[in-house]
Amino acid sequence: MRNNYLFLLLFTTMGFTQYSPSAPWKVDNALAKKEKLTLEEEVALFNEYWTTRDKNVKGSGHKPFKRWENYWKNLVNEQGYIISPTQFYEAWQEKNNAKKNSTVNSRFSLPVSNWQPVGPLTHTNTGSWSSGQGRVNVVYQDPNNANTLYIGAPAGGIWKSTDAGVNWTPLSDYLPQIGVSGIVVDHTNSNVIYIATGDNDNGDSYSVGVLKSTDGGTTWNTTGLTFTTTNRTAGDIIMHPTDNSILFCAASNALYKTTDGGTTWNIVRLGNFAKGSVRFKPNDPSVVYAVTNTSFYKSTNTGSTFTQVTSGLPASSSRLRLDVTPANPNYVYILSHSFNEPANNGFQGVYRSVNSGDAFTLRNNTTNVLESNQANYDLALAVSDTNAEEVYTGCLNIWKSTNGGTNFTKLNNWSSPTAAAYTHADIHFLKFYNGNFFCGSDGGVYKSTNSGTNFTDLTATAQISQFYRIAVSKQSSANMVGGLQDNGGHAYSSGGWKNYYGADGMDTAVNSNDPNAYYGFIQYGGTLYLSNNAGNSRTGSVSAPAAETGTNDDGGNWITPLRANNSGELFSGYERLYRLNGSSWVQQSVGTIGSGNIENIEVSPVNDDIMYVSNGASLFLSTNRGINFNAVYSASSSITSIECHSSNSNIVYITTSGASGGVFVSTDTGLNFNDITSGIPNIGKNVIVHQSQNTDNPLYVGTSLGVYYKDDTMSSWEPFDTNLPNVSVTDLEININDAKLIAATYGRGIWQTDIPVQVPNDDVKLVQIQNPVTGINCGNNVNPEIEIQNNGLNPITSVTFDYTIDSTPYTYTWNGNLASSATTVVALPSVTIARGTHVLSVSSSTTNDAFPDNNNGEKSFIINDSGTIGVVNTFTNASDELISYNEGSAGSQWVRVIRSDGSTMDSAGNSVYSTSASGNYPDNTKAYLVSQCYDLSSVSNPEIRFSLKYDLEENWDIVYVEYSTDFGGNWNVLGTSGPNWYNSNRTNATSGTANDCQNCPGAQWTGLNTTNTSYFYPLTALNTETHVIFRIVFHSDQSVNNPGANVDNFVINGVVLSSETFALESIAVYPNPSNGLYTVSTKNQQIEAIEVYDISGKNILNQNNFKSSNEIMLDLTHASNGIYFMKISTDVGSITKRIIKK
């Protein structure tokens, strides 16, 4: 409900939150038996358990705890316990009171936020091996209307669809942050909805008991079931099929029953039922079944009392799920898991009762249907509502039995996202409604109408993603990339989201000088994934530094920090600071920094040499670009974020951990800090950002309850959250060009709002470097073109440009008249430079320039030579060298070398370009060998030809050729497989169960050919292009490497036409074939006569004296269908064209 007082009674006593007591590291552990545990004790138990186990096994159960720990670690009190619901409610109430007081008192002019959702509402899979959008705990179909569906998310609340899952609407955004794990709708009145709140599978949010709506979910009220401690969760909630006043709710302390529609609830059986199931017997609601983690119970008096049934069931279990079916009301199925069973990941078996739960028989305990050891996190069971022998289990994937559980077959695979039966990994929910089969997993909600043969993803428009971090491009808020819980990296560009890698997406970055260059970590910084096209594909990966990894150690923290500086350099934090260099991390810092892993990295926007990192409560400063660090400050608790002032390098801000953590500012580079927390309640302060180009110095803090704002005109913080759901904000980014603040939330995706813009009297803004282009520039003359904007109120009459090309300084002054808000492009003097990679850095300034932080721009570009048709490049001399580079770096795997290592790539004394000077090529490498620029517009029958031999891991490592006609802006694969070109057309999609060729474009060389072979391909499709560039691509995968490939004798062949011949060749006749009406078109020639002959040589048409001599219409409709020859005579000669009349 949107009125704030509703939950006051809900949060009445001090409590505590702890991780699931059934987790394997808590079984038979004395510390775990304590009444309550601090977060530190929870982590200690977990770490002790995993010292002897492999955490990287898929579905090991390691990641769910790390997600839980990361969420709650900033919500602990001073004693180390997670704050109670009472404290959380008080913070929420304090926030709402502050908003009311701000409105009433109007003490100052607080900027108004207008938060709007950015998504992901839907996404395209462009490289993820396990694409998805957000976790779903429960799916419910309205018993009165099959088109009305509900889903419950662990931190995104309850959502409703009235069109069978095509569109979703949130129903709980303005409640205190909740998850939903159980839903039921009154079968007599669809406006009455009950929800069991919280996250019963992993504790991602508080549970506030059972809530009830009587208006279809528009508002919510508390019921009589409220929890008095925060270690309570709730799961299944069911309603009596004929008496809507009777409901059962499975909670972590007991099974509850109400007989008055939720006004009062009574415990009918003690035990942890939250992760179990509760069901009515079909056609006989006097019989009720329920399971805890360890036991099965049956009632024959509508749940007034329950009796434990043990016949045929395991003596002890770790988690049970049950289901029933109207196809045979006497059947009861149970799925059992035990951490004490080492075989088959603890799968104890599927059991069936044929006598309404009085006794059970084992159906199967040998098929590894769990495939993982994470049943504590997700376990699901469903029986078809039309076939009592059809049973489904879910843990990592979905398995199906058609003979009552005796035999199972796997329906899908979490790493095959293009398969028809795909659902994302980690199955939390399975259920049939009216013959339709629904699944809730870590990736979303799925529906099958054919018993699991095909699934349709229904998650679109449900914005339930749990983001860890977000990065936004400096140039535009339309380019951003973020990391999601178990759904990898999601990239935003061109108005859409792309899921370009899998796993848990963590910290991300966008290259400061290239808005399309995205970077994203997975958990522990184990792998960095790159995209150079704004997420449209995954174009590279970089493993964690070897010095940072070891046995069961993937590298850094769960969230390993990434940060890009203004120069486009990318840094990561492990125990040491690293800088990305091509396809590897290079150590930047001298030794380790503090004790343990780096948690935060910040680079001053004013000076790339000034960097801060934090480790625990310690803050470190570097003034030489991260090479040396000095400890400058020790906070009272761990530092959660660092932010440098946008124009003053002496000012730095930090936030600290814990509900009582604070916000602090230093004006002396971190030596001393002042507390500026006033106005923010005792909740987690996750991140702080500073807005540039505003003399009031606006600041924004993302907290566990939304966003707060403060500037120099204010003494305390105020909520800045109009339209923003009550959800934890995990990251904030500002794009000052668009005046947008972007927020990442843990449960409701990405949001953005306008922020206050200050217009100064005088300010020039460098918008972009238009020329040279970022890609490959043909020719040695560089003509820099700079777009600037008058960002102030007064006209600008003069702008000074101080710029360097590879550190060589230049100065130019533009004079003119630029009105306020107007833009212009300034052409700087031409500079002649040699072939290779160069860097242009530009700084613009004007008189009384207000904001120097918007004056600078930098661009890396390549200068390329022009190639000559017919000249063979043997790569013998240094002057024969080509441009080559690795993905994301100036370094190159392609090297010009006389290879003599005795391998299959030995070059027999000849100079070649090879993928390695000796030995095998490395893993995870994508390298380009770039040709010169060619003008094919006056070339007849052009072709590309070169010698190649190769020894590559077949169907994994590849070589292919691409071409570009727009200076490297876009690249296309050249040609298809054939006898004179590629030897493979295989793709990952066509590889079937082999699941190989993951980098294959479908046209490549792969495998083994150690004979130097001349390959060629016709270029007739490009003979109108004036600037064609080719590049030979080498791409290796993540493991297994071979000697590689050699390229030699590169040439573009063809006949260079004379100007007369070229002019005649350019004459066009179209359409051809035609029904008899033809157009003859020339560029500059004068057509004097046209003659047409049939195949026997008989002349059928003569025309001359044309009114227009450049474009002529001919009518041959009178002629018979067939082939003819048209002779076209011009002032420079004649040419004959073959035409077809049809």
Automatic annotation (TrEMBL):
<dbReference type="Pfam" id="PF18962">
    <property type="entry name" value="Por_Secre_tail"/>
</dbReference>
<dbReference type="InterPro" id="IPR015943">
    <property type="entry name" value="WD40/YVTN_repeat-like_dom_sf"/>
</dbReference>
<feature type="region of interest" description="Disordered">
    <location>
        <begin position="539"/>
        <end position="559"/>
    </location>
</feature>
<dbReference type="Pfam" id="PF15902">
    <property type="entry name" value="Sortilin-Vps10"/>
</dbReference>
<dbReference type="InterPro" id="IPR031778">
    <property type="entry name" value="Sortilin_N"/>
</dbReference>
<feature type="domain" description="Sortilin N-terminal">
    <location>
        <begin position="158"/>
        <end position="268"/>
    </location>
</feature>
<protein>
    <submittedName>
        <fullName>T9SS type A sorting domain-containing protein</fullName>
    </submittedName>
</protein>
<dbReference type="GO" id="GO:0010411">
    <property type="term" value="P:xyloglucan metabolic process"/>
</dbReference>
<keyword id="KW-0677">Repeat</keyword>
<feature type="domain" description="Secretion system C-terminal sorting">
    <location>
        <begin position="1069"/>
        <end position="1140"/>
    </location>
</feature>
<dbReference type="InterPro" id="IPR052025">
    <property type="entry name" value="Xyloglucanase_GH74"/>
</dbReference>
<keyword id="KW-0732">Signal</keyword>
<dbReference type="InterPro" id="IPR026444">
    <property type="entry name" value="Secre_tail"/>
</dbReference>
